[in-house]
Amino acid sequence: MVKRGRAITITVAVLVMLLFLGRRFSIILSDQWWASLISPDAAAFLLQMHLLRLVLDGAGILVACAWFIGNLFFVYRALSVVQVPRYISNLEFREALSSQDLLAITIALGAILGLLAGLGVSDWWTTMALAWGGVQYEVADPLLGHDLGIYVAQLPWWRAMRSFSLLLSVTGLGVVIILYAVIGSVRWVDGRPAVSDHARAHLGALLAALALCLAWGYLLLPYEIVAGLHGTETAGAWSVRVATTQTLAGIASATAILSVLWAFRPRHALALAGWIILIAGSIIGRFIVPAVSTDDRPAVAANLSETFERTAFALENLELRDRTDQPGRAPAQPPGVPWSAQAIGRLVAVDSTTLLATAPIVLAQAGVPRPVWLTVQETRGEVSVSAIAADRTSAGGGPLSYAAGDTVAYPSVLTLALLDSTEGTIWPGAPDYHVGLGDAGFMLDSWTRRLILAWGLQVGDLLGGTPPTARLTWHRDPIVRATRLAPFATWRDVQPAWRDGRLTWLVTGYVLSETFPAVAPVEWGGGSGSANLVRPGFLTTIDAAGGETHLYLLPEAGPVAGSWSDLAGPVVEPTDAIPNDLLRQLRYPLSQARVHAEVLARRPELGSPVRGGNGVGVGGRSGPIQVGWIAPRTPGVTVAYHRPSSRRLSGLLVGTLVDGRPALELVRIDSVASLPTPAVLHQRWSRFPLHEQIRDSIRADGARLEAGSVQYFLTPTGLIAMGPYYAVRDGTRPRVAWYSLGAVGRLGAGRNPEEAWRNLTGQGVPLPPGMGSVGRFVEAQRWMSLADSALRTGDWVTFGRAFEALREALQIEPD
What we know:
The protein is an alpha+beta fold and about 800 residues long. The chain is about 45% helix and about 25% strand. It contains 20 helices and 33 strands. Strands 5, 22, 25, 26, 27 and 28 form a 6-stranded mixed beta sheet that branches. Strands 15-16-19-20-21 form a 5-stranded mixed beta sheet, with helices on both faces. Strands 29, 30, 31, 32 and 33 form a 5-stranded antiparallel beta sheet that branches. The radius of gyration is 34 Å and the shape is globular. It starts with a helix and ends in a 6-residue tail after the last helix.
């Protein structure tokens, strides 16, 4: 019976191990096959990554198993006889376990503990690889004098190894104490501990190992403080901490020696005194002594901290300047921006349509550059692309968009291209896998392949009803695809781009670190974490239809990204290999803009970003980052700042990308030359004489007037603000009904940008609703002329578009 039970146990253990290894190797093969569709270099890199993870897991499990089995074997040596109860009918008797059974139980328990402790070490593969490759900034920190790369690359690996050693020491000590207490080698006798010689030798060695781990932590503490892991440090606290950590490391080492001595001689009081001193010294040295230091100056000078901040958060190209414009000075006319990012979402989100992504780009139509909002939307499983004109609307304020290869913008939202979502098309939120009969994907021509892929991807559908000519495409979300290809970066900010009549996804990869000296951390990932270093380092380009994927190093990526590029080898292509047309379309990443906004808000002269005050965008409130157009045909981002005690702007951050390189300008605005915050501007604009008439006219038409986001512009002659108002009716696309402008000391409004500008500069008065309809008839005349020309040439597609535009201009409802 015993042999049969042992055989069953061994069989179950082997099956569990085979299932675990089979799952692991099926994932490796799945990744290999997927990467082979991208490039041989990608397949080689992912294989190396998986091998490194296997080695780390194997080493971690081997070390942990050896540690626990060794400690349990030492406990096993203290056992003489172990009896287990057995029952026959209603009779109970005790049976002594043989030494072979005890040894088997010892090894099995140690292996289980080692497996639990060691499995997961592979999660540190990025930390280990970066420490192996190293990072060089050639800049020393001001406190310890080490290169900044030590804190970014080596320190995380040191901390990981220390935490693993501490885990083994604490867990091993706890398990051993429990076992010795169970067998009676550790007990209380007359209120005093009684420990056998065998148990004391064992526990003394484990306590010494624990003390050495604590000493290791104390030696790392100054590095962690410099790296910003313990908050901002003052000069007084730093000098005290350096002395106390060295003292505590010495006390911990002495405690380790006392523990070893206790292992050989039962001097309980001496060993206990060492641990009491160590614990008390840790509390005093870590918390009490630094708190009573009198020197409250920052440990790092403010100018040096600002320099490190620029390096950590990619702010090297930041330009600072002051504006002292005087009231009454006429500003230059800003670009007309009828649509914000929020309004674009409302334009597209009709008829069960979901906006997947949008970006402001300059689209070349038949060689003519046109500023557009490039949008990608999904309607009932069908993915389409549109190019909405960013600088103009129809005469009635509705959207205009471009057809493929046409320089004329037509009313409504036309389809620039339609993607075949049944052939493994890639888009944000796409199903993770697709089985089709097209030319793209991995061949499912054998049962073995289908089994391995089904196991690795956890997709049971591949095991049945799949024709041998079928192909599988997976990792179809751009973020997921970029993450699987380059897991050493954090991927955000999916942007659509248009290249040679095809949709291409641009995904930005960031390098993060929690250990960068002399900077305060910023929130990252929607508040789920923080980082002391955030830099865009990589760009992944993905062809939406064919799946062709490339990974590039971004310009000015920084030393960390450069080190990863060296480690990844040819899978990361150099910066100069990025196609110029794609690099020009790359927009300022929103995640990077959020980081810059938070970092610059630390300057006391700026205050905080205007949150939710950039206006109420159509469909919801907007945040502090305004994505749009900072100048004609120049996309970018703006962030407005204000002091809590003021209702006027204190600064304006304007950012754009020039050939992939960030160009940042922070303008500190004098209170005399400043504009009010968006909330104040909307209050003042709502008191404009014709504002109520516009609202009543729109209400009479069954719609409502909603305020759009306020955009601030830095013109050569002054600061100016523009805020469109939309006529919104449920189930239909909004239209721009009113434009409001604001400059220092003056306001203006009108039904279009030109009319509002003339009103702002005192050259005219906006016409009330129902008057001035000449623009509609001029537009109708233009569409009639275009329709007539298309009819003469037999261009029925253009004729149909022009005819529909004519109906809209004349406000003729379709039958």
